[in-house]
Amino acid sequence: MRMECLVASTIGTARYSCQRVVRRKPSSAGRPIRRMRAHPGVFAGLDVGGTYLKAARLEESGRVLARLEEPIQRDSSDALLGQLARAVKALEVDGPVAGVGIGLPGIVDLGTGRLRSAPNLPIVNGLDLGAEIAMRTGRRTFPENDANAAALAEAWLGAGRDAETVLLVTLGTGVGGGLVFHGRIWAGVSGYAGEIGHLQVEPGGVSCGCGSWGCLETIAGIGGWVRRARELSAARTSSLTGHAELNPEVIVRDARAGDPVALDVVSGVARALGAGIAAVLNLLDLERVVIGGGVARAGAFLLDRIVEETRRRTFPHVFEDASFRLAELGADAGVVGAARVGILGVRAAYA
């Protein structure tokens, strides 16, 4: 285990001080659980991705005290559960936490607490992660969909912190979403609310991994960017044909340079996102839309186009009452949101 301090930085309105950083190689051996009195104002947030586990120890104010990042153990559910429990214990080196929140790449069934629809980490399908980690750590544990957790983080400390109703749209391999109303995740009856990536925006479009077709994700997910760029550049002269590998970053760079095919790809993505976001705004009349995820690094070049496409499809008064922002928390959104899930869960448990 190696400890080091980081230079102070900011996250939303909360400030980091010098932070303890924990980096470990995954271990196959756990340690017996020590029952200690938990610090009432400190929580652990775990962001479980398809490739990496990120975790942090946070104060209730949102200040990050310690971090951990390591490759996910995908061999079996037992290996992963052991890894998550050990991560919690590693974050308790300076004292036990009051609760644990976990962001997961799937839908948490609100009736059973079990995870379902986790295609990028199938070993966790059907597991009650909250109960499993609580049993291994002795800490109250609260699981949540990772996009919902990120939305909660942005609504708490990020680009949605001054809004009562927030939609987060995450752009990456897929298109995720989360809704936060008055500081709480709105997950619907069974946990599927906010899945904006699976709104149909192209009735004659390609099939989607969800079983439908023409979903927003098929256009605005990374695969959609690349597919459209290849289709258009095969029929027209474009600088995109000179790249060994295509991805949204390359396409946006060439679009900025004026390549007409790259510009058409960016416009198509913005149009699809505008259609999806407009549908949500017309239905729910929200105050804030936050665009995040790796693809959002295109910045205002993409955001301005999304806003214009949304405006064209939204009731004028609804559009005027909504504001658009790029996400502010970056890679921290997952762990901060997971910790916030834990904070709210513990508060509710003792209410």
Description:
The structure is a single chain. By secondary structure, the protein is of the alpha/beta class. It has ten helices and 15 strands. Helices cover 35% and strands 20% of the residues. The protein has a six-stranded mixed sheet. Strands 13-12-11-14-15 form a five-stranded mixed sheet, sandwiched between helices. Helix 7 crosses helix 8 (300-311). The longest helix is centred in the C-terminal third of the chain and has 25 residues, at 260-284. 49% of the residues are buried. Residues 1-36 have low confidence and may be disordered.
Summarize the structure.
This protein is 35% helix and 20% strand.
